Here is the input.
Amino acid sequence: MRKVMNPGKRSVSALLAVMMTATAVAEIKWLEKTYNYGVIKEADGPATGSVRFVNNGPDATYISRVRPSCGCTGASYTQDMLQPGDTATITFTYNPAGRPGKFDKTVKVYVGKDNSLTSVRITGTVIGDDSTLESHFPIETGDLRTESVSFPVGEIKRGAHRHTFLNAYNQGRDTITPRWEVKSPALTIDLTPRRIAPGEIATFSFYFDSDKEPKNGPVEYPVTIWADGDSPDSGKREFVLSATIVPDTRKMTAEEIDNGPRAYLVPEFVDFGEVETGKLLDFEFEILNDGKSVMTVDRVYSRNQLVNITRMPEKVKPGKKGKVRGKLNTTGLAPGAFRIAVEVLSDDALHPVRTANLVGERTE
Here is the structure.
Protein backbone atom coordinates (compact mmCIF):
# COMPACT_ATOMS: atom_id res chain seq x y z
CA MET A 1 0.00 0.00 0.00
CA ARG A 2 1.45 3.40 -1.05
CA LYS A 3 2.16 5.81 1.74
CA VAL A 4 0.63 9.26 1.50
CA MET A 5 2.80 12.11 2.72
CA ASN A 6 1.30 14.27 5.38
CA PRO A 7 0.31 17.62 3.80
CA GLY A 8 2.11 19.49 6.56
CA LYS A 9 5.35 17.62 5.93
CA ARG A 10 4.99 18.16 2.17
CA SER A 11 4.72 21.92 2.70
CA VAL A 12 7.81 21.99 4.91
CA SER A 13 9.83 19.97 2.37
CA ALA A 14 8.80 22.27 -0.47
CA LEU A 15 9.75 25.32 1.59
CA LEU A 16 13.16 23.88 2.40
CA ALA A 17 13.78 23.14 -1.28
CA VAL A 18 12.97 26.72 -2.23
CA MET A 19 15.21 28.07 0.51
CA MET A 20 18.12 25.84 -0.57
CA THR A 21 17.76 27.02 -4.18
CA ALA A 22 17.57 30.68 -3.15
CA THR A 23 20.61 30.53 -0.92
CA ALA A 24 22.81 28.32 -3.09
CA VAL A 25 26.19 29.90 -3.82
CA ALA A 26 26.87 30.27 -7.55
CA GLU A 27 29.72 28.05 -8.78
CA ILE A 28 31.58 30.03 -11.42
CA LYS A 29 35.02 29.85 -12.97
CA TRP A 30 36.62 33.08 -14.15
CA LEU A 31 38.51 32.81 -17.43
CA GLU A 32 40.01 36.27 -16.81
CA LYS A 33 39.99 38.54 -13.77
CA THR A 34 42.23 41.26 -15.19
CA TYR A 35 42.40 43.22 -18.42
CA ASN A 36 45.38 45.30 -19.58
CA TYR A 37 44.68 47.85 -22.29
CA GLY A 38 48.41 48.38 -22.81
CA VAL A 39 49.18 51.80 -24.26
CA ILE A 40 46.23 53.73 -25.69
CA LYS A 41 46.04 57.22 -27.14
CA GLU A 42 43.73 59.81 -25.69
CA ALA A 43 43.00 61.07 -29.20
CA ASP A 44 41.54 57.66 -30.17
CA GLY A 45 38.71 58.04 -27.68
CA PRO A 46 37.14 55.42 -25.35
CA ALA A 47 38.71 51.96 -25.40
CA THR A 48 36.81 48.71 -24.79
CA GLY A 49 37.83 45.43 -23.13
CA SER A 50 36.12 42.39 -21.62
CA VAL A 51 36.47 39.42 -19.26
CA ARG A 52 34.47 36.16 -18.99
CA PHE A 53 33.39 33.50 -16.56
CA VAL A 54 31.72 30.09 -16.90
CA ASN A 55 28.81 28.81 -14.82
CA ASN A 56 30.28 25.57 -13.42
CA GLY A 57 27.42 24.89 -11.04
CA PRO A 58 24.48 22.49 -11.37
CA ASP A 59 21.93 25.34 -11.33
CA ALA A 60 21.25 28.38 -13.44
CA THR A 61 22.59 31.71 -12.19
CA TYR A 62 22.85 35.29 -13.40
CA ILE A 63 24.79 38.56 -13.08
CA SER A 64 22.84 40.75 -10.67
CA ARG A 65 24.82 43.98 -11.17
CA VAL A 66 28.17 45.45 -12.28
CA ARG A 67 29.73 48.54 -10.67
CA PRO A 68 32.85 50.33 -12.09
CA SER A 69 35.00 52.16 -9.53
CA CYS A 70 34.76 55.56 -11.23
CA GLY A 71 32.81 57.56 -13.78
CA CYS A 72 35.59 57.15 -16.35
CA THR A 73 34.56 53.52 -16.90
CA GLY A 74 31.28 52.21 -18.26
CA ALA A 75 30.22 48.55 -18.24
CA SER A 76 27.70 46.16 -19.82
CA TYR A 77 27.16 42.45 -19.23
CA THR A 78 25.23 39.33 -20.18
CA GLN A 79 21.63 39.87 -19.08
CA ASP A 80 20.22 36.35 -19.68
CA MET A 81 20.05 33.52 -17.16
CA LEU A 82 23.24 31.49 -17.29
CA GLN A 83 22.52 27.79 -17.54
CA PRO A 84 25.15 25.25 -16.37
CA GLY A 85 28.08 25.47 -18.80
CA ASP A 86 27.13 28.91 -20.16
CA THR A 87 29.75 31.66 -20.50
CA ALA A 88 29.07 35.25 -19.39
CA THR A 89 30.87 38.32 -20.72
CA ILE A 90 31.45 41.61 -18.90
CA THR A 91 32.42 44.41 -21.28
CA PHE A 92 33.86 47.71 -20.04
CA THR A 93 34.83 50.95 -21.74
CA TYR A 94 37.50 53.30 -20.37
CA ASN A 95 37.33 56.98 -21.35
CA PRO A 96 40.89 58.43 -21.47
CA ALA A 97 39.81 62.05 -22.07
CA GLY A 98 41.87 64.34 -19.85
CA ARG A 99 43.56 61.39 -18.10
CA PRO A 100 47.15 61.04 -19.34
CA GLY A 101 49.40 58.46 -17.65
CA LYS A 102 48.80 55.10 -16.00
CA PHE A 103 45.40 54.02 -14.76
CA ASP A 104 44.37 51.18 -12.46
CA LYS A 105 40.62 50.71 -11.94
CA THR A 106 38.27 48.03 -10.69
CA VAL A 107 34.92 46.73 -11.95
CA LYS A 108 32.88 44.93 -9.28
CA VAL A 109 30.76 42.03 -10.54
CA TYR A 110 27.94 40.58 -8.40
CA VAL A 111 26.63 37.09 -9.33
CA GLY A 112 23.57 35.12 -8.18
CA LYS A 113 21.02 35.60 -5.41
CA ASP A 114 23.83 35.69 -2.87
CA ASN A 115 25.49 38.60 -4.75
CA SER A 116 28.85 36.82 -4.81
CA LEU A 117 31.40 39.58 -5.46
CA THR A 118 34.46 39.49 -7.72
CA SER A 119 36.60 42.56 -8.46
CA VAL A 120 37.98 42.74 -11.98
CA ARG A 121 41.09 44.89 -12.38
CA ILE A 122 41.65 46.97 -15.53
CA THR A 123 44.93 48.76 -16.22
CA GLY A 124 46.73 50.63 -18.97
CA THR A 125 48.61 53.77 -19.93
CA VAL A 126 47.16 56.77 -21.77
CA ILE A 127 49.29 58.83 -24.15
CA GLY A 128 47.86 62.31 -23.74
CA ASP A 129 47.14 64.58 -26.67
CA ASP A 130 48.75 68.00 -27.01
CA SER A 131 45.88 70.04 -25.57
CA THR A 132 45.59 67.86 -22.44
CA LEU A 133 49.34 67.89 -21.82
CA GLU A 134 49.43 71.67 -22.26
CA SER A 135 46.67 71.98 -19.68
CA HIS A 136 47.93 69.43 -17.12
CA PHE A 137 51.70 69.69 -17.65
CA PRO A 138 52.43 73.09 -19.26
CA ILE A 139 56.18 73.16 -18.49
CA GLU A 140 58.18 71.29 -21.13
CA THR A 141 61.80 70.21 -20.61
CA GLY A 142 62.79 67.80 -23.37
CA ASP A 143 60.59 64.72 -23.01
CA LEU A 144 59.71 65.67 -19.41
CA ARG A 145 56.63 67.77 -18.79
CA THR A 146 55.77 69.19 -15.35
CA GLU A 147 52.98 71.13 -13.68
CA SER A 148 54.97 74.17 -12.56
CA VAL A 149 58.44 75.64 -12.05
CA SER A 150 57.81 77.25 -8.65
CA PHE A 151 56.68 75.85 -5.30
CA PRO A 152 55.67 78.43 -2.69
CA VAL A 153 55.11 76.47 0.52
CA GLY A 154 54.05 79.50 2.54
CA GLU A 155 54.88 80.42 6.12
CA ILE A 156 56.71 77.82 8.20
CA LYS A 157 57.53 78.09 11.88
CA ARG A 158 61.16 77.55 12.82
CA GLY A 159 61.75 73.83 13.46
CA ALA A 160 58.82 72.64 11.33
CA HIS A 161 58.96 70.49 8.19
CA ARG A 162 56.96 70.77 5.00
CA HIS A 163 56.22 68.40 2.10
CA THR A 164 55.22 69.45 -1.39
CA PHE A 165 54.92 67.51 -4.64
CA LEU A 166 55.43 67.94 -8.37
CA ASN A 167 53.90 65.59 -10.95
CA ALA A 168 55.86 64.92 -14.12
CA TYR A 169 54.91 63.21 -17.40
CA ASN A 170 57.09 61.43 -19.99
CA GLN A 171 55.89 62.52 -23.42
CA GLY A 172 58.69 60.72 -25.26
CA ARG A 173 58.99 57.28 -26.81
CA ASP A 174 61.71 55.98 -24.48
CA THR A 175 61.99 55.46 -20.74
CA ILE A 176 63.74 58.38 -19.03
CA THR A 177 65.59 58.66 -15.72
CA PRO A 178 65.45 62.28 -14.53
CA ARG A 179 68.15 63.58 -12.21
CA TRP A 180 68.34 66.74 -10.12
CA GLU A 181 70.70 68.97 -8.19
CA VAL A 182 69.98 71.07 -5.10
CA LYS A 183 72.72 72.78 -3.09
CA SER A 184 70.92 73.45 0.21
CA PRO A 185 70.87 70.81 2.98
CA ALA A 186 67.44 72.16 3.97
CA LEU A 187 65.82 70.59 0.89
CA THR A 188 65.68 66.88 0.05
CA ILE A 189 64.17 65.53 -3.18
CA ASP A 190 62.99 62.09 -4.27
CA LEU A 191 61.23 60.75 -7.37
CA THR A 192 58.70 57.89 -7.61
CA PRO A 193 59.23 55.94 -9.78
CA ARG A 194 62.84 56.79 -10.59
CA ARG A 195 62.44 55.58 -14.18
CA ILE A 196 59.47 56.95 -16.13
CA ALA A 197 58.15 54.86 -19.02
CA PRO A 198 56.58 56.57 -22.08
CA GLY A 199 53.18 58.02 -21.21
CA GLU A 200 53.63 57.50 -17.47
CA ILE A 201 53.37 60.01 -14.62
CA ALA A 202 55.92 60.24 -11.81
CA THR A 203 56.00 62.41 -8.68
CA PHE A 204 58.86 64.52 -7.33
CA SER A 205 58.69 64.82 -3.53
CA PHE A 206 60.21 67.95 -1.97
CA TYR A 207 60.95 67.74 1.76
CA PHE A 208 61.88 71.02 3.47
CA ASP A 209 63.52 71.08 6.92
CA SER A 210 63.50 74.61 8.37
CA ASP A 211 66.01 73.65 11.08
CA LYS A 212 68.68 73.35 8.38
CA GLU A 213 68.12 76.90 7.12
CA PRO A 214 70.01 79.51 9.19
CA LYS A 215 67.98 82.54 8.04
CA ASN A 216 64.50 83.60 9.06
CA GLY A 217 62.20 85.29 6.60
CA PRO A 218 61.81 84.48 2.89
CA VAL A 219 64.14 81.85 1.45
CA GLU A 220 64.45 80.38 -2.03
CA TYR A 221 66.09 77.16 -3.19
CA PRO A 222 66.90 76.68 -6.87
CA VAL A 223 66.64 73.08 -8.09
CA THR A 224 68.06 72.00 -11.44
CA ILE A 225 66.27 69.03 -13.06
CA TRP A 226 67.54 67.16 -16.12
CA ALA A 227 64.90 65.37 -18.18
CA ASP A 228 67.10 62.28 -18.50
CA GLY A 229 70.24 61.76 -16.45
CA ASP A 230 71.46 59.18 -18.98
CA SER A 231 71.33 61.75 -21.80
CA PRO A 232 73.12 65.03 -20.97
CA ASP A 233 71.49 66.75 -23.97
CA SER A 234 67.95 65.79 -22.92
CA GLY A 235 67.27 69.30 -21.60
CA LYS A 236 67.33 70.87 -18.15
CA ARG A 237 65.39 73.53 -16.28
CA GLU A 238 65.62 75.41 -12.99
CA PHE A 239 62.78 75.08 -10.49
CA VAL A 240 62.43 77.16 -7.29
CA LEU A 241 61.02 76.22 -3.90
CA SER A 242 60.26 79.22 -1.66
CA ALA A 243 59.17 79.58 1.96
CA THR A 244 58.96 82.15 4.74
CA ILE A 245 60.44 81.04 8.06
CA VAL A 246 59.09 82.74 11.18
CA PRO A 247 60.04 82.23 14.86
CA ASP A 248 58.12 79.54 16.72
CA THR A 249 56.54 81.13 19.78
CA ARG A 250 54.17 78.26 20.62
CA LYS A 251 56.33 77.08 23.52
CA MET A 252 56.55 80.52 25.14
CA THR A 253 54.62 81.13 28.36
CA ALA A 254 52.01 83.88 28.64
CA GLU A 255 54.39 85.78 30.92
CA GLU A 256 57.24 85.57 28.40
CA ILE A 257 54.98 86.84 25.65
CA ASP A 258 53.64 89.68 27.83
CA ASN A 259 57.17 90.76 28.75
CA GLY A 260 58.45 90.53 25.18
CA PRO A 261 58.93 93.20 22.50
CA ARG A 262 56.11 94.68 20.41
CA ALA A 263 56.76 95.83 16.85
CA TYR A 264 54.92 98.68 15.10
CA LEU A 265 55.85 100.44 11.86
CA VAL A 266 55.64 104.21 11.58
CA PRO A 267 54.25 105.02 9.07
CA GLU A 268 52.70 101.84 7.67
CA PHE A 269 52.20 103.52 4.27
CA VAL A 270 54.93 105.47 2.50
CA ASP A 271 53.16 107.51 -0.19
CA PHE A 272 55.29 108.67 -3.12
CA GLY A 273 52.40 110.35 -4.91
CA GLU A 274 52.94 110.61 -8.65
CA VAL A 275 56.30 109.26 -9.83
CA GLU A 276 58.02 109.15 -13.19
CA THR A 277 59.73 106.09 -14.59
CA GLY A 278 63.50 105.86 -14.63
CA LYS A 279 64.06 107.37 -11.20
CA LEU A 280 65.56 105.95 -8.00
CA LEU A 281 63.46 107.10 -5.05
CA ASP A 282 64.57 107.11 -1.40
CA PHE A 283 62.17 106.04 1.35
CA GLU A 284 62.27 105.45 5.08
CA PHE A 285 60.07 104.35 7.97
CA GLU A 286 60.68 103.46 11.62
CA ILE A 287 60.26 100.34 13.71
CA LEU A 288 58.78 101.19 17.12
CA ASN A 289 59.28 98.80 20.02
CA ASP A 290 56.27 99.29 22.28
CA GLY A 291 57.11 96.22 24.39
CA LYS A 292 58.98 95.52 27.63
CA SER A 293 62.23 94.01 26.35
CA VAL A 294 64.81 94.60 23.62
CA MET A 295 63.61 93.70 20.14
CA THR A 296 65.80 91.77 17.69
CA VAL A 297 65.15 92.59 14.04
CA ASP A 298 65.99 89.52 11.94
CA ARG A 299 65.37 90.90 8.47
CA VAL A 300 63.82 93.71 6.49
CA TYR A 301 63.04 92.69 2.92
CA SER A 302 60.75 93.01 -0.05
CA ARG A 303 59.81 90.28 -2.48
CA ASN A 304 59.77 92.91 -5.21
CA GLN A 305 63.17 93.21 -6.88
CA LEU A 306 62.64 96.94 -7.48
CA VAL A 307 63.19 97.54 -3.74
CA ASN A 308 66.64 97.68 -2.14
CA ILE A 309 66.98 97.98 1.65
CA THR A 310 70.05 100.08 2.52
CA ARG A 311 69.69 100.35 6.29
CA MET A 312 67.95 98.48 9.11
CA PRO A 313 68.37 98.28 12.89
CA GLU A 314 69.51 95.03 14.49
CA LYS A 315 68.21 95.90 18.00
CA VAL A 316 65.53 98.30 19.23
CA LYS A 317 65.22 99.07 22.94
CA PRO A 318 61.82 99.29 24.69
CA GLY A 319 60.08 102.60 23.89
CA LYS A 320 62.60 103.43 21.16
CA LYS A 321 62.57 103.47 17.35
CA GLY A 322 64.92 102.09 14.73
CA LYS A 323 65.11 103.54 11.23
CA VAL A 324 64.72 101.59 7.98
CA ARG A 325 65.92 103.16 4.73
CA GLY A 326 65.78 101.96 1.16
CA LYS A 327 65.47 102.81 -2.52
CA LEU A 328 62.70 102.14 -5.04
CA ASN A 329 63.65 101.78 -8.69
CA THR A 330 60.69 103.11 -10.70
CA THR A 331 62.07 101.81 -14.02
CA GLY A 332 60.28 98.50 -13.72
CA LEU A 333 56.95 99.87 -12.45
CA ALA A 334 53.89 99.33 -14.63
CA PRO A 335 51.84 102.45 -15.43
CA GLY A 336 49.15 103.26 -12.89
CA ALA A 337 48.80 102.81 -9.14
CA PHE A 338 51.23 100.54 -7.28
CA ARG A 339 51.52 99.03 -3.83
CA ILE A 340 54.72 97.23 -2.83
CA ALA A 341 55.15 95.42 0.49
CA VAL A 342 58.25 95.76 2.66
CA GLU A 343 58.25 93.18 5.45
CA VAL A 344 59.92 93.43 8.85
CA LEU A 345 60.72 90.19 10.66
CA SER A 346 61.38 90.46 14.41
CA ASP A 347 61.11 88.44 17.63
CA ASP A 348 57.72 89.98 18.48
CA ALA A 349 55.87 86.81 19.55
CA LEU A 350 52.44 88.12 18.57
CA HIS A 351 53.40 89.79 15.29
CA PRO A 352 56.67 88.32 13.99
CA VAL A 353 56.01 89.86 10.55
CA ARG A 354 54.94 93.48 10.11
CA THR A 355 54.39 95.06 6.69
CA ALA A 356 55.08 98.58 5.44
CA ASN A 357 53.57 99.55 2.06
CA LEU A 358 55.17 101.69 -0.64
CA VAL A 359 52.33 103.28 -2.61
CA GLY A 360 51.97 105.76 -5.41
CA GLU A 361 51.09 106.15 -9.06
CA ARG A 362 53.50 105.83 -11.96
CA THR A 363 52.72 108.37 -14.64
CA GLU A 364 53.34 107.90 -18.36
